[in-house]
Design goal:
Layout: E1 2-10, E2 14-21, E3 27-35, H1 47-51, H2 56-87, E4 90-99, H3 108-112, H4 115-136, E5 140-145, H5 149-157, H6 161-175, H7 181-194
Parallel strand pairs: 1-4, 4-5
Antiparallel strand pairs: 1-2, 2-3
């Protein structure tokens, strides 16, 4: 079994997952968009925005319901990815989730009173459901602040860091679209997760 790792870059209600293996050279062995919002539930893609004027009790109930449904979707998507990779001879033990600033969130009441905090809370919700789904699948999960990604790559790869970044960018020519910033950053995070020294 060849070692592989998953990298995630999440958005509101969906995210990008890239699986990489570095045995014999960097290789992308899976990439996809995953949906982590229940389409039949109103406001599921932006549960905090939707809850802004519901009142605190109904807001709590709506966000909890959306979070539970998103967790189920994330778990199903990750199980599907892992099953595919395992059948192809890959063993995934590591995952890396790109994060924002890591700001500690206040109470729900204060979150709903601030548009900026609403955005922050939604980002955290979808990253958290993926984190929990990865842990349920037995993966080691690392959160990598996006603003620190380049610094961590430099620390782990040293003078080869630029070469690694260029290799990831060049993969898009062979793989074809989509190979956007989402995929490149998720691939770099997964590549770091494969290394013995990072990106803990």
């Amino acid at each position: 079994m060849r070692r592989a790792a998953l990298g995630f870059r999440m958005h509101s209600g969906w995210g990008v997952v890239v699986a990489v293996s570095s045995d014999g050279g960097l290789e992308v062995i899976d990439r996809r968009h995953i949906l982590v919002a229940e389409a039949s539930t109103p406001g599921s893609k932006q549960p905090y925005h939707y809850s802004e004027n519901l009142g605190l009790k109904k807001a709590e109930e709506h966000i909890a319901r959306c979070s539970a449904a998103s967790g189920q979707l994330a778990s199903a998507a990750i199980r599907e990815i892992l099953a595919k990779l395992e059948s192809g001879g890959h063993r995934v033990e590591e995952s890396a989730i790109l994060t924002a600033s890591g700001r500690t969130l206040p109470s729900l009441e204060k979150i709903l009173a601030s548009h900026a905090l609403i955005h922050t809370a939604e980002g955290e919700l979808f990253r958290n459901v993926v984190h929990n789904a990865c842990e349920e699948a037995g993966l080691v999960v690392t959160h990598v602040p996006e603003r620190d990604l380049e610094e961590r790559a430099q620390k782990i790869f040293g003078h080869k860091a630029n070469q690694v970044r260029q290799s990831i960018t060049a993969l898009g020519k062979r793989l074809g679209p989509p190979w956007t910033r989402d995929e490149k950053l998720a691939a770099l995070a997964a590549t770091l997760a494969l290394q013995p020294s990072g990106p803990r």
